Amino acid sequence: MKASVTKGLGQGFVVEEVDLAAPVGHEVRVxxxxxxxxxxxxxxxxxxxxxxxxxxxxxxxxxxxEIGPQVTQVKVGDHVVGSxxxxxxxxxNCLSGRTYICSNPEATLRGADGGSRISWNGAPVAQGMGxxxxxxxxxxxxxxxxxVPSEMPWAPAALIGCGVxxxxxxxxNSANVQQxxxxxxxxxxxxxxxxxxxxxxAGAGQIIVTDIEDAKLDRAKAFGATHVVNSRGxxxxxxxxxxxxxxxxxxxxxxxxxPVTAQGFQMLGRGGGLYLIGVGAMDAGVEVSALVALSSxxxxxxxxxxxxxxxxxxxxxxxxxxxxxxxxxxxxxxEIALGEIDAGYESLxxxxxxxxxxxxxx
Length: 362
Prior knowledge:
2 domains
């Protein structure tokens, strides 16, 4: 089969013929129909590094073609969406519903004596985040897959597994936004737009989006933002405090730069919460005065994958989309072929481009 192989830092994405093993245990073979380009994969390929060569790609949607002997949650023919949330299902965190912070995520992978799922010229190839979706087929543990309705289009379906879970989940799960509350979304990229969608589903009274690009802010209004603020020319803290009448209930930081995060904390009203999702720099973080936080009963919380339960949340978002209650179509700015990943990532530098999805796997 064809797969896009990353052979080392800065060496890009190159299509090669690779071999995929037969499924064993809880493994599921999936014919990939769509695979989204997420910046996390680009970061691994360009500066974070890891095990090379590797097949990256963790926003995957496709059809189940074969299952291992211990698989019970999916069947051949199911339409599925993959997620990078890896969970064992047996640890305390999993049993309490917090699968996104599983204590034993490696349980979804093959052991050292199990061989490699992917090989190239007879040598093992790493599989990014247990998914390896930049390929015609992939082999995934059933715990990383959720079944979606067959009428769900492939391109928006692929985005649910990461960007939608992260953005909408931060609002609905991590913050538990209630009807009428005020929400600020810092950063109007694709994941931020999913936070806007989540805020609409929650019934937020005001949804304020800040960014430095007008094109992104125009898109935010189309997704349902009630107010937008261009922070390049306007003090976003003053703007938010004026719009909300004293500060927001919830602020979601999808940028992750220290000055921006500091502004996010200053936007909070009494009892408000700042949620850290984006990491735009290695020194990302925020300094908080304990006295201020105590006197105003404010909190700062890190959010991983929207505190999501993928088996519950992926089908839910698919249902919301099919009912016309969640905008996923406008996230898909461009569809590309498997051999165009480098160009696809380059196009994401344009603020008018929300997300790019591989849909031509030929």
